[in-house]
Each structure stands twice: as C-alpha cells, then as structure tokens.
Design goal:
An eight-stranded mixed β-sheet has the order 3-2-1-4-7-6-8-5, sandwiched between helices. By secondary structure, the protein is an alpha/beta fold. Helix 9 packs across helix 11 and helix 11 crosses helix 13. The N and C termini lie far apart (53 Å).
Length: 350
C-alpha cells in the first residue's frame, strides 16, 4: 500500500506504452523526493504495458495499478484526479523521463508560493533513442503575467507531463473536459488562468520525448482545430460572456461554430488559425487537414509556402492531393466534371 497520507500523487495514464514505460516509471522511482503515491492507470492496453506496471507495483508499495477497459485519455485523467489522495498531483506520461530532482524542486517552490496553483517546468527535448531532439521553440513562460501574455500571442504555455498542480483547484473547475480531445490540457490551462496563478520553473526537469506515434503526431488536425476552439472559448469567458462549450462532450464541426458562439465569421477564423500549422505535418495533410487547407484557400485565405506544400505532398506520397492543391492555388476553387463547382470533400479526401 502507498503511504497513508502522501504529500504528492503522481498520475500516469498508459495505453499501449510498453516501449518507454519501464524507463518512465524508473525515473519517477528515482526521485530525491519520495513521499508520494504513484497511480498508474492502464487504459485497456493490448500490449505488455499492464504486465510491466504490475511488476513494478509488486516491487514498490507506493505504486497503485488501476487496470480497466479502454475509455480514453480524458476519462483516465479525471479518474486519476478522483483517485488521488494527496493535495498535490504531479502529471507524468508513459514516454517521458523525470530528472531526479523534479518533484523536490517543484514542491519546494509551491510551498514558498501558495498563490501558484499550477507549476510546470522547462523541458529537454529528446527523440525515441534518448538523443537530443532539435527543436526551435521558446521556453515556457516563467510567471503568471508572462503566461497570460503567451495565451494572447498563441505561444506554448505548459508541458503537461511536467506539471504539478493543486488537486482542489483543478477539481474546482471541473477537471478535464471531454469535448477538447487531444488538447484537453490546453483547455484546462485556459480555464485555470482566470482562477489561479500559473508559472514554470526555468529548469529542465523533464525530458520530453518526440516520436512518430505520439498523440500530437497521430491527431495533428483534430488537436489544432480543438486548440483553436479552446482559445475562442477562453475569449468568451474573458469578455464576460457564457462559454458555449462548457457542457459539451464533443465539439461540433467547424462550420457550426458561428451558430454555437452566436457570431458570424468564427468558422473562417478557426480555419485561418489552423491552416498554416498543418502544412508541414504529413499526418495532417494525409487526413482532414488537407480539406481544411483547401477550404481556407478557397475562402481567400493565405498561407506562406503553399507551392512548396504541393511539392511536399508528392514527397509525402499524396500525388492526387498535390494536384488538387495546385488547382486550388491556380483557380481559387475546384471544378467537377460538367463545370459544377466542387466545394465538397469527396475528391479532397482521396
């Protein structure tokens, strides 16, 4: 059994994560701060993840394995919130690595700054072989004022698995919302930004892994669309208006956003926000992201480097999509046989 009243609950959800899971667990157990319970929720894995977690649980009494059928990440994160016994929760993913001093440094800072409800840290980016991953990006904002400014500029806010937060504050805003699949953490930070102060330690306390099968690679389009909608919802709350997404369990299609928010032009605005970020993603240009980019161009929107994207689509193995995008760029629309204007996605989704 874990400690009767731990100071910290470590919350990890796992789904088919056997490749990196043992190393992730080892990095938690190697922490210099040891007064924690370690909740590992296996979300219906079909690989060896559950057996790996069970082996560790048999060796360390701080680990509590929760094994059940697959319900998805948001349900898992909310269950971990409910199961946690400590006032502080450290998020951890099954493919990242904690530095040994991570918990000690973050808990000490939170003890000295009770006004901070959410505390992240800077990260070191690594690849699937633990080697340095080249990434040109700004570090996360250090204090709350910089955090709010980063929201307004669209800059990164927090690295989810590097965060420790106060359990009651997160539960007080309803935890993770199921509508914001694949960006549930961003939606949570935006809701928390108006009820507590948020900061990041300027220390690289987490080694964050990049590889082709992570969520941000496999669900690039849905993640970016939902992130754009979460920012619309944030703007509504900040303006004192009701948030129409608050009780949704699934977000509507982009074309229904004008109706949902009661204002014209929001669907086009979301496409304009999202399209530039999809051009370099093979996954996005192979799924619904391609139709979104073409729709954005037909609406008169612009993205730098679209002709280079045509060439990139050929390299990605999508020659028909390369041709369709070239036609859109040349004509501003597409023509189906017989001269009919084709605004649908049937051809674009080939």
């Amino acid at each position: 059994m874990p400690p009767a009243s731990p100071s910290l609950s470590v919350a990890m959800s796992v789904y088919n994560g056997e490749r990196f899971l043992a190393a992730a667990i080892d990095s938690v157990l190697a922490q210099t701060f040891g007064d924690f319970e370690f909740l590992i929720l296996d979300d219906g894995s079909t690989d060896g993840s559950r057996a790996i977690a069970a082996r560790y649980a048999a060796q360390d009494r701080r680990i509590r394995l929760i094994a059940r059928e697959n319900r998805g990440l948001v349900a898992s994160l909310n269950q971990l919130l409910d199961e946690a016994q400590a006032p502080l929760i450290a998020r951890m993913d099954a493919d990242d690595l904690c530095r040994p001093e991570r918990f000690a440094r973050q808990i000490a800072f939170l003890a000295q700054h009770p006004e901070i409800g959410v505390l992240g840290s800077w990260t070191e980016d690594i690849d699937e072989h633990d080697a340095a991953y080249p990434l040109v990006a700004a570090d996360h904002p250090v204090d709350h004022e910089a955090f709010v400014a980063a929201i307004d500029s669209g800059a990164p806010l927090l690295c989810h698995p590097a965060v420790i937060y106060r359990r009651d504050i997160v539960r007080g805003v309803g935890g993770y919302h199921p509508a914001f699949r694949h960006c549930e953490d961003l939606d949570l930070w935006l809701r928390l930004a108006t009820v507590t102060r948020i900061a990041n330690l300027p220390e690289r306390l987490l080694r964050y892994r990049h590889y082709s099968q992570q969520v941000s690679s496999r669900h690039a389009t849905e993640q970016q669309v939902n992130a754009a909608i979460s920012r619309l919802a944030y703007a509504e709350r900040r303006a004192g208006r009701a948030d129409p997404t608050l009780r949704l369990t699934r977000l509507p299609p982009i074309d229904e956003l004008d109706h949902l928010f009661g204002r014209a032009g929001l669907a086009r605005s979301v496409r304009a926000m999202v399209a530039p970020g999809l051009l370099y993603s093979r996954a996005a240009m192979g799924d619904a992201g391609f139709a979104l980019v073409c729709r954005h161009v037909r609406e008169g929107g612009r993205c730098d480097g679209l002709w280079r994207t045509v060439a990139r689509l050929v390299l990605f193995g999508y020659p028909w999509r390369a041709l369709r995008l070239a036609l859109v760029l040349l004509t501003g629309t597409t023509r189906a046989p017989g001269g009919r204007t084709d605004h649908g996605a049937a051809v674009l989704s080939r």
